[in-house]
Design brief:
Nucleotidyltransferase, domain 5, alpha/beta, 11 helices, 2 domains
Length: about 325
Amino acid sequence: MAEPERFVLGIDVGGTKAVLALGRADGRVLAESRLDHWARGAWAQDLETLVAAARDLLRDAGLQNAAPDAVGVSAPGPLDPARGVVLAAPNLPGWSDVPIGERLREALGAPVRLENDANAAALAEWRNGAGRGTRNMVYATMSTGIGAGLILDGRLYRGAHFQAGEFGHVPIRARGRDSAAGLPGTLEAYAGGAALADRIRADVARGARTRILELAAGDPRRINARLWVEAIRSGDAYARGLRDRFVRDTAQGLAGLVMLLDPEMIVLGTIVQQNPDLFLAGIRERTRARLWDSLRGVRIEPGQLGPRLPAHAALAVAALEPGDFSR
């Protein structure tokens, strides 16, 4: 690959995989690599793994003697973008108070910009995906957990403590199931992927008849949201009933976001983005039914970046201006 005049490096940090990308500040991806099952449970060792992978990517692109303009890191939160510190990463054992900004800056010779993964995904879909052309957009990730990134008046909004957008932890029941964060009755406790798998396992233990257990080879521990979706497609009555409750609960959470923020668009990621035919129409209908007439024009769309999202997300963070990280 010919050496670009200017380039940025992006690193998307996940619990089971990490994605690294070289690109331009406009979001164009020039080269990409992926690490599977990379984390070892000690953050210093894990950062060395990321640095080695970044140097390999630079070398393979013929840039071993060049430094990027900036390094963007998309990581699970909570974190402190101003200090470049991952405060806690639930899916990365041993990651607590990790000075990832300082360590990567020293190793790679470039300023490091850190953002939580939901915010980074919002930036990517806004700049290069479904949200292009909007000024007020919400990206909602519907995965193991539930969160959101907020683009308000053409800027990423983080909140006073860098924790804006945690709508998965907003209660939708006065009392109810506990979420992973220990809060009762939240949207994530009913519509998050981990919570759905726990609910299915509990229902199976009580005698619920569903093909999901068969798809899990009879092992309740293997039950997950992917098998639930497969069962929906096979016509399984239990799975479809759970789908209806998922749609209802998700719509309730999204309606609250619309009433609060009045966005032009909500972009849905992960399970909805991957299976729009199963979920999107119901979510649109039920969300709009909970809104004032004047707000029912909000567009609810699946994300467009799909498997390219991690690379675009990390590069979008690298392209942020340094002033965007001040308190």
